[in-house]
Specification:
The chain is globular. The protein has 3 helices and 7 strands. The protein has 151 residues and is an alpha+beta fold. A 4-stranded mixed sheet has the order 4-1-6-5, sandwiched between helices. The protein has a 3-stranded antiparallel sheet with strand order 3-2-7, with no helix packed on it.
Length: 151
């Protein structure tokens, strides 16, 4: 009887999902934030846009694909900004954020209901998805430094 209770209390491990995000700068030095559509998980939260890595896909290729598919934009992908691991209720994500430069395309919204170009130092003023908060903090710290570089 005690063995069954112990087995019932053991939770299944959460799947680990690799996700890419773009910290996308436009020519004016603003950063793109998108708000997740209310019908989706984390609905109403702001995020750095991106998506899930497919098996066998290279991270930079994934990010370019996701941004084209979900927002209709083209970017140049530079170096990683940060890697964040965050456990949500049903899954654990490994979020890899890359610094990007916006090249063009008219933004269209599929999984999002709003987008804004914001000053990098203001990103923490938005209600961000939990996994995006450490990336936003790092961006704000970089912006506060006199030598903070942007692509």
């Amino acid at each position: 009887m005690k063995t069954n209770q112990a087995l019932e209390s053991v939770k299944e491990p959460k799947p680990i999902v690799p996700v890419l995000a773009g910290v996308i700068f436009n020519p004016q030095g603003k950063v793109l934030l998108t708000r997740r559509h209310p019908r989706l998980s984390n609905g109403g939260r702001w995020e750095f846009p991106g998506g899930k890595l497919r098996p066998g896909e290279q991270p930079r290729d994934c990010l370019r694909r996701e941004l084209q598919e979900e927002l209709g934009i083209e970017v140049t992908v530079y170096d990683p900004v940060d890697v964040v691991t965050h456990g949500y209720e049903h899954q654990c994500i490994v979020l890899i954020a890359y610094r990007c430069r916006y090249l063009g395309g008219d933004i269209r919204l599929i999984d999002h209901d709003r987008y804004l170009w914001v000053d990098p130092g203001e990103v923490l003023q938005f209600e961000l998805s939990a996994a995006d908060v450490p990336i936003a903090r790092k961006l704000v710290q970089e912006t506060a430094r006199p030598d903070g570089d942007k692509p």
